[in-house]
Amino acid sequence: MPTQILQQHSGTACSASSSCCCQTGRQTSRQTSRPERLRLLALAETARLEACLDSLHARHILPSWTLLRGPESGLVMVRGRIGGQGQPFNVGEALVTRCCISLAAGCETSRQACGIPASDASASDTAAILGCGYVLGEKPRHAEMMAVLDALWQNEATAAILDTELLPELCSSLRARYEADSAAAAATKVDFFTLVRGEDKD
To answer: Of 162 and 25, which is predicted with more confidence?
Structure first.
């Protein structure tokens, strides 16, 4: 998404105040949990998120938002367990960028553009929606777009659009990425065998 669009929709309050379930075809936000969607967004290509927000902006469906925190980068401690068992230990530090936004209360523009009457708005739609994004590395734009899409996925007016236009592409892209990684790893596979010595024979 062009930088000017990000600035335009961030509004005047833009300054900071301080296992994939795509294995079986088409999924919806009701079938995928929020952590799973956040995982897909974090692993997605930045250009794909930009294209999605550009499309919503062109159709006047993208509401304004306010930055609550970040985007800001920092180090987090990564912990692990050997073999998934045993006592946890500190693997090392990783650079992470995070962002938190507040979607415009009511998202009136989105409801009108999607043809949803204001009288049909639920109580959750009339309250401000918070979106968050955490992405590995120093990627402020990715983290902000991730937070915006997280909030849009919690909004009834735009959740169905993201389910139809974005979720299948994120799933197929991640599946293709895993298949490519598996193929690359399989190419380096080495088969070991044991030679039988003469004295070992009966």
So the answer is: 162
Using an 8 Å Cβ cutoff, are 108 and 16 in contact? no
Rounded Cα–Cα distance for residues 164 and 88 (Å): 40
How buried is residue 182: exposed, middle or buried, by Cβ count under 10 Å (0-12/13-18/19+)?
Answer: exposed
The three-class DSSP label of residue 58 is helix
Q: What is the pLDDT of residues 19-49, one digit of tens each?
A: 445 544 455 555 678 999 999 999 999 999 9
* Cα 195 versus chain centre, distance: 50
Q: Which residues face 77 on adjacent strands? A: 93
- Map tokens 């897909």 to a residue: 40
Give dist(CA 64, CA 132) in Å, integer: 15
